[in-house]
Amino acid sequence: MRHVIALDVGGTGMKAALVGAKGELLHRARRATGRDRGPDAVVESILDFAAELRAYGEQSFGEPASAAGVAVPGIVDEVRGIAAYSANLGWRDVPLRDLLTARIGGVPVALGHDVRTGGLAEGRIGAGQGADRFLFVPLGTGIAGAIGIEGRVESGAHGFAGEIGHIVVRPAGTPCPCGQRGCLERYASAAAVSEAWAEASGNPDADAADCARAVASGDPTALTIWQQAVSALADGLITALTLLDPRTLIIGGGLAEAGETLFTPLRDAVRERITFQKPPTIVPAALGDTAGCLGAGLLAWDLLDMTDRKEESA
To answer: pLDDT 10s per residue in the chain (314 long)?
Structure first.
């Protein structure tokens, strides 16, 4: 059975799958990245995991994987297949595509940014299915984005497209590690809400989910923190809507798990800010933490389809 390898590499763990031609998940597995042993160990863990997946596929389905797709955090040069930079993994200019190709039998390998790869899956087979233009925004430790156009995700000229978390929403505000001040992710990420609620509640272990529960129970302090985050998020989204005009806006990540505690005030805040812009449909992400792995599988099949077409026309 023809299949591909899909790998979603996170800061501490990897999710993997063997994916069939119709998107069916034939096999799933997880493994630690080995980040505690250093960046070289992470690369070796990925290569070893991919080799094991290839062997499993060959044994179980009668042939090795035809291609592989890999989603990684940080800055990715998708054209050259290089993981250019990742603070989480300590990487700089890792030729991951070439290394993987050599380890798994010379098959084609697609490399993608983790959020853009997850956005590809959400757009094609998740919450944005059927939308010709979408924006995927996961609200996690930081905030990134994926710009969907006619079934593909735009990476930009230098691999930075979709970095909505670094839109400045509060000029001269809180410093951001990126070097700017007042970035969206410093106010509206799950990490920002967790930090604010931990300080306000006096509980250093409190997080954004605790804040959401306090909002639902009517806690006025929690409500103030939540409203400030929603207001900043709406300001950032209006800038994105003005520039990109998406038909569907998909919100994911940890903060989106609050459900209507987030989506009701967010839809209201965006609606209040709209003037000439056309309001998008605002929906929660549908695929959860499987989006990156599913997207990696889509990248692999896309690359394989392109390779097949080139061979047919040769």
So the answer is: 899 999 999 888 999 999 998 888 899 999 999 888 999 999 999 999 999 999 999 999 999 999 999 999 988 888 889 998 888 888 999 999 999 999 999 999 999 999 999 999 999 999 999 899 999 999 998 999 999 999 899 988 888 899 999 999 999 999 998 899 999 999 999 999 999 999 999 999 999 999 999 999 999 999 999 999 999 999 999 999 999 999 999 999 999 999 999 999 999 999 999 999 999 999 999 999 899 999 999 999 999 888 666 665 55
Q: Which residues contact 194 (CB under 8 A, 6 or more apart)?
A: 206, 207, 208, 211
Q: Is residue 148 within 8 Å of residue 119, measured between CB atoms? A: yes
Sign of the dihedral through C-alpha 278, 241, 151, 255: negative
The CATH number fitting domain 3-117+289-313, selected from 3.20.20.70, 3.40.50.1820, 3.30.420.40, 3.30.230.10:
3.30.420.40
Computed on alpha carbons and rounded to an integer, the radius of gyration of the chain in Å comes to 20
Give the C-alpha distances (Å, rounded to integers) separating 142 from 126, 243, 282.
22, 21, 20
Domain boundaries in the chain? 3-117+289-313, 129-286
Give yes or no for a contact between 137 and 250, defined as CB atoms under 8 angstroms apart: yes
Burial of 97 (0-12, 13-18, 19+ CB in 10 A): buried
